[in-house]
Specification:
This protein is of the alpha/beta class. The chain has nine helices and twelve strands. The protein folds into two domains: about 20-110 and about 210-245, Periplasmic binding protein-like II (D-Maltodextrin-Binding Protein, domain 2); about 115-210, Periplasmic binding protein-like II (D-Maltodextrin-Binding Protein, domain 2, 3-Layer(aba) Sandwich).
Length: about 250
């Protein structure tokens, strides 16, 4: 009988080794909120939400031994969702700002980005400087509650500003000639430039840091930061950068 117990104990140990760094079947779920339509960070492909942030969270989930479940929603609903516990963590190319830090806690930064101006591929719009956007003749599209929207509010009050729940709605209205341009994060502008009839005509230096957001005071933050640091120093990180940014 003792021999049987010893064999069972050893099997449990080996099982723990096999699943270290990976979510076991039936493991505690890690509910990740995102806003697909922010390529290459999060977008839909063949009906599934994928992208850099999603693969990063899967790697973090593997480190934590938790099963990652993704919930897609409008960007401006994410902070409320994590604050109320509807989701555990926000992974949505979210810039760390002082205003947002009053409502959520952020991980260490994992990506640095600027803003950019995107127009239709055949547009003849040209800008001498970002200040030129402050013009009543322009209809500018932004995604709600993003730093691009905040920048436009502060710097282009004379323009007509149209707000959307997702960037995919912005790009569709741009293509349908309901907008003149979009102000959005540079990596996303570059992705749209590759995949849609659009072109980036200006970079607006903002030097923004993206972070993963959790509920204010959540103990999960320590685990997220530890796992994120480990992933960022691994081959997995290099593979993600190569896959999504040719870096």
């Amino acid at each position: 009988m003792k021999k049987v117990i010893a064999i069972i104990a050893m099997a449990c140990v080996l099982s723990g080794v096999l699943f270290a760094g990976g979510a076991q079947e039936g493991a505690e779920k890690l509910i990740v909120g995102t806003s697909a339509g922010f390529r290459p960070f999060e977008y839909r492909e063949k009906g599934e939400v994928t992208g850099f942030d999603i693969d990063l969270m899967k790697a973090i989930g593997a480190e934590l031994g938790r099963e990652v479940v993704v919930q897609d929603m409008d960007f401006d609903a994410l902070i409320e969702a994590v604050s109320t516990g509807t989701i555990d963590v926000v992974a949505a190319g979210m810039t760390i700002t002082d205003e947002r830090k009053e409502r959520v806690d952020f991980s260490q930064a994992y990506f640095i980005a600027d803003q950019a101006v995107l127009v239709r591929e055949k547009s003849d719009i040209s800008l001498g400087s970002a200040a030129d956007l402050n013009n009543a003749k322009f209809k500018i599209g932004v995604q709600n509650d993003t730093t691009g929207a905040f920048w436009v509010d502060d710097n282009a009050p004379n323009a007509t500003i149209k707000r959307y729940g997702k960037y995919i709605e912005c790009i569709q209205d741009l293509e349908n000639q309901n907008l003149d341009l979009i102000v959005l994060d540079k990596p996303v502008a570059e992705a749209f430039e590759k995949n849609r009839p659009a072109k980036m005509i200006m970079v607006i230096p903002t030097d923004e840091s993206y972070g993963l957001a959790v509920k204010k005071g959540s103990e999960l933050l320590k685990d997220i930061d530890k796992a994120l640091k480990k992933v960022m120093s691994s081959d997995t990180w290099d593979e993600l950068m190569a896959t999504y940014f040719d870096a």
